[in-house]
């Protein structure tokens, strides 16, 4: 039952680009007065695909941050959508895909360890019985229980339904007669792409960079 308690992970954005400059909020352009006022607040929060200088997709960010990177000369727009935002002096097309102008080394382990990302990795499927469930009906299970030194890590946390989680209790899967569907792993490049596709599935312009 110990495993049912929420693990001490801080909620963080699903994907972070560690190392990209922190923005100074002062120069952020505001959304232009749009014909449909209902869409205005979401414009700055819309997802933007971030490519490395080599066109490799590395991240997803929000329009607001993408514009900061563009204004700082760190990135340029590769694809834009139909709306515009206005800074003090000029109108800028809202980016849909941006590319960093200089190559950035992305460490393999840059994905935030979070409940959301683990559920995404495990495709909302209990890793013991294989049932796909809504996020609200899944918990995170420490494969090696915390009471026995199991850590909160990509390799030791899996999505689990409450039934399996209760059945397992303070035991290892073997002791509880449960079998893991697959060995839990950190986000790989493959997982990241899947995540980017999930986020960007509505944006046609992302496709050619994500190869699907
Ligand atoms: Zn289960």
Model description:
Strands 1-4-5-2-3 form a 5-stranded mixed β-sheet, sandwiched between helices. Helices cover 22% and strands 21% of the residues. The protein is built from 7 helices and 7 strands. It has helices at residues 40-43, 63-71, 115-121, 162-168, 173-176, 189-200, 207-210; strands spanning 30-31, 47-51, 57-62, 75-86, 91-100, 138-142, 157-161. A hairpin with a 4-residue loop joins strand 4 and strand 5 (91-100). The relative contact order is 0.18. The N and C termini lie far apart (42 Å). By secondary structure, the chain is an alpha+beta fold. It is elongated and about 65 Å long. The longest helix has 12 residues, at 189-200. Zinc ion binds at residues 126, 128-129, 131, 160-161, 163-164.
Distance between the termini: 42 Å
Main beta sheet strand tally, sense and closure: 5 strands, mixed
Oligomeric status of the shown chains?
single chain
How do the SSEs run, as a string of H and E? Answer: EHEEHEEHEEHHHH
Strand content: 15-25%
Fraction of helical residues: 10-25%
Ligands in the model, by name, code or SMILES, are: zinc ion
Number of helices in the DSSP assignment? 7
